[in-house]
TrEMBL record:
GO terms for cellular component: cytosol. GO terms for molecular function: glycerone kinase activity. Pfam families: Dak1. This is DhaK domain-containing protein.
Length: 121
């Protein structure tokens, strides 16, 4: 998402310092959390078995196989989204108070597959 913001600034003809500023502003406003049912394969590393239980999901894992903040029993999709939103709303980028009578700033939501599948799949 940060790259998309930088690319949009560049496509508008912004100078390099303005493109950098757009990327830095986007990065400062991003909150992210990963959710997975399986771990990734890291070349040269033994296969992780921490998510071998088919009823376990990991919340907050890293994209390179780093363990997440917690492994939980697989909840319903609705409950999982609630849990993800609780984590995201506590992130510094999203936890700024809204002044009384003020409006909530617009949000963008990007959902991806943590690199698990190619676009063709």
């Amino acid at each position: 998402l940060v790259h998309k913001c930088a690319g949009a600034a560049a496509a508008r003809g912004a100078c390099l310092s303005a493109v950098t500023a757009a990327a830095e502003a986007a990065a400062a406003a991003v909150a992210t959390v990963g959710v997975s049912l399986t771990t990734c394969s890291v070349p040269g590393a033994p296969r992780s078995r921490r998510l071998d239980n088919p009823h376990t999901v990991e919340l907050g894992l890293g994209i390179h196989g780093e363990p997440g903040r917690e492994a939980i029993t697989l909840p319903s999709a609705t409950d999982l989204v609630d849990r993800v939103m609780t984590v995201l709303s506590a992130a510094p980028a999203l936890s700024k108070p809204v002044e009384e009578g003020g409006s909530v700033p617009p949000l963008a939501l990007l959902v991806n597959d943590l690199g698990a599948c190619s676009g063709l799949e």
